[in-house]
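Subject: complex prediction, re-run

Hi both,

The earlier run crashed halfway through, so I resubmitted it with identical inputs.
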Amino acid sequence: MNEQQALTPLAAGGLLDRRAFLQRSLSFSVATLVSSEALATPENGREPWMEKPGAPFSNYGEPAAHERHVIRWTMGNDKALGNGVSWTPLQNLEGIFTPNGLHFERHHNGVPQIDPKQHKLLIHGLVNNSLVFTLEDLLRYPMHSCYCFLECGGNSNAAWHSEPIQTAVGYFHGMASCSEWTGIPLKLLLDEAQVKGRAKWLIVEGADASMMQVSIPLDKALDDCLLALYQNGERIRPENGYPMRLIVPGWEGVLNVKWVRRIHLAAQPVMARNETAKYTELLPSGKARQFTYVMEVKSLITQPSFGYKLPQPGIYQITGLAWSGRGKIAKVEVSADGGKTWLEAELQEPVLSKCFTRFRIPWQWQGQEAILQSRATDETGARQPAREHLLAARGQHGYFHYNAIVSWEISAQGEIKHVYA
Amino acid sequence: MNEQQALTPLAAGGLLDRRAFLQRSLSFSVATLVSSEALATPENGREPWMEKPGAPFSNYGEPAAHERHVIRWTMGNDKALGNGVSWTPLQNLEGIFTPNGLHFERHHNGVPQIDPKQHKLLIHGLVNNSLVFTLEDLLRYPMHSCYCFLECGGNSNAAWHSEPIQTAVGYFHGMASCSEWTGIPLKLLLDEAQVKGRAKWLIVEGADASMMQVSIPLDKALDDCLLALYQNGERIRPENGYPMRLIVPGWEGVLNVKWVRRIHLAAQPVMARNETAKYTELLPSGKARQFTYVMEVKSLITQPSFGYKLPQPGIYQITGLAWSGRGKIAKVEVSADGGKTWLEAELQEPVLSKCFTRFRIPWQWQGQEAILQSRATDETGARQPAREHLLAARGQHGYFHYNAIVSWEISAQGEIKHVYA
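This time it finished cleanly. Structure:
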């Protein structure tokens, strides 16, 4: 493949073969060509930080001062302090993992400050052995790690509005993050408690002041749920459920109960506020969806995206994230012409089940107006819907489980807007 | 498999089948059996943090106050301020990734505070195009992520001492950490510079006050090296090379130049201090090893380990980390009797090349004296050596590339010591 071939778009709007960069070097016309070597010698070109010893070491490192804008935006509820959201700034991140300090939060009553020596987990109800576990007990159990995304069932809900919201991708779709979670397979603890045959549900309760309760089918708990103690290597942080939380891979964030203190085995769900008044959806038919657990296949372009401006025509990388609560991502297609033509993006290896998958594709922008979109398909064959199809199926008044295609419009000046296309 | 079968050791000293826990529930006799449900109701058993709203949200989260002991220990050199080590506390971590705040550091002259707008990368020497890249330029290039460990060539060097050091595993073997690194394949940048045929080496220089220089063979640079901008999702932190560092998968840490500012293509290595006076090793034959780049296959048990005490006889999980600079880990065997018998541990999936691999195996301790060891084999068939074999090959006065088996002695009281066995 020569440079000319590499630069031949394979879809309209300038999308290039995802392997173009690997097969043939391209001139990006981005770097500055320098003619003199003088710049390069240690004697010249020395920056001020090379002239003196650097800062002292630290026991626990922090991001660079120049990156202090990379934070979670927080949104609180004036009428209910402690209720709100901390959004993951997806537009600033690369790869698939979310640093612990930037993992999204959906707060119900603030962040409890739990003494791990006093915290206990109770498993009771329809079991032969009611068991109480201290943290010290649990640390002796066999651990298991899984790589999985968490997404709030209400993520992206601004996209149900009739007008497209103009905000950074992270403050719109950033109630989704991804970690390596390590803990004890819930099955081990339930087997030790000896669950009775009549039990079909777990009613799980958190130890914060909102005392969140949710109902989880026993089959799911035995399949792949985890009582997590570690996130991305270290112990879970307070905002993520210290000292322990439930991980329910691929299902709504609200089920992943933080600060978990009690698992009650029952024949019926508890019908708590978060499974009746909230997290249910009225459909056009007049019926309501309830227990809509699985987070369906979804993707979005994180760069370029709202808030950035393309400085000049040239080659850019389009990148974003895809995920599905039903398994692995099979493919992500990208369009630069509002969905008329599509080209398959490269997926970051290894592609893991119920985990963020990073996609990337090169794009040659020649200064034209463009609409960038991504569309993911998972291994079950489920494909991310167009917005009009989602609205037709679910009505105009949705709030939860928005997973339609996201569109970024590029102007001839390189400015980027969120549009419905 | 019934409980009795599950508890039948498959190797001496009480090592159990690594699948025992998954196939059959075991009574750990760790949890407390409770007879009354009263404890469990929300009206009783309410902890103080359930009685009031929790703490406010934060823009960038921090570890729990109760986990403040989980830090990098730092060791400085009184005679050369800015020279030292920050150790990763491996004994406190689980899974395979190291949080950015706890990634190890080998400091040469402190931590430079670099303004990313002023920092530039120069590629010059035996190239047709001498190129200068700003950070803004680089952010437009195609990115790639790799999961890889970094290990200092001098990690574990206390094990060359004639007496076994008594310290936590992280303050002994903790110049090793693992991350998701994201950046630009070095091949792309070198291809754009058009490397001349005579060039065989990269001489890479960092922008700190020590102005570290190292030599890296061109073949390795074209194979899998990365100019990394992101670590575990976010931009690299100052201590790890902000705004950019080299990643040289599987090779000595010192080659992964932080704050990289200059890559000089040359026909010969530079023969800098760190490849002549340091990072070379006198062998029993009188010859010295030089350019010993690859970090060989290695493993160690992180729990239980020095500093912990087994509270009572019972079932424990033995867990640790294995890695190899030559590729994937093929297997890790564990011994509870000082190496007389071995049993294969479970490896955390997916097993990735040149990346930490977590291993785990259940162990029933009946109060006997025991010596715990792990022994890794990589996909090339290379196996971690016994200490006596390493010393026979490399002499008594080694300092670099220690990768022998690590032994923890358990006393009848459950106390744990480091021994040479």
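Chain B has a mean pLDDT of 91.

- K.
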